[in-house]
């Protein structure tokens, strides 16, 4: 007699529809869900309708041109995501030990581009059987939802700070002034007085950077100066690289750029310490899973960076 095909199996909702629903709720878009799953928009809509029929209630409502998850659907999606994560963990534990493993890492864009990706070859050398797939979020405070094995967010690793996740401190965040070598050659900044006349470049995703730095530099009278604002730090970084002005940059994420001579830090003694980055593992992750080894590697890399800059 099988213990796997008893009565409760008959009451499960359609699993394919659940998968489509989880992706649609996570991405907030039928179109993005279709792209991620390799389906058509119509196929996603039909699977959602099938699940709605099974549950007896609507899961999405139309808002303009988008389909938005209902409050009940958002709660349901969190539970479904957790269930899929537990199934993934169980499947990995039962899988072939020599099989190539996929590790899904979700991180803020700037962290992924300027710190993580340039170091991934080191992890691949250490764990050649693990394939890392990196997805990004636009802000460091993006909501945690399913679809990843490891998430990187700004925050602290204290107890209770991240419900349903285990947090490990990875990287400090220290801000200072950055500028391009070409701009420094034309209009060097050798002391605080040399800031006068320079265009200040700022990022919406890192609000308050200039205010905090100017206060640390004891230059509060410059706080009201106009700034050129970009929507994301990686755009601001490019503007600084092009010599359009000076910006505030996070040193750990720009270590490689500085070492390669792309930026200079004209006033390195003036720094602002910010909340750093943590790596998050869903509770219940197997201690031998690739995600655990990846987080341990992240922490070692972050520690090595702290030793180099201390």
From TrEMBL:
Coiled coil: none annotated. GO terms for molecular function: DNA-binding transcription factor activity; sequence-specific DNA binding. It comes from Gluconobacter thailandicus. Belongs to the LysR transcriptional regulatory family. It holds the Pfam family LysR_substrate. Keywords: DNA-binding, Transcription, Transcription regulation. Gene3D superfamilies: Periplasmic binding protein-like II (3.40.190.10), Winged helix-like DNA-binding domain superfamily/Winged helix DNA-binding domain (1.10.10.10). One of its GO terms (biological process) is DNA-templated transcription. PROSITE patterns: HTH_LYSR (PS50931). It comes from the Bacteria. This is LysR family transcriptional regulator. Residues 13-70 form the HTH lysR-type domain.
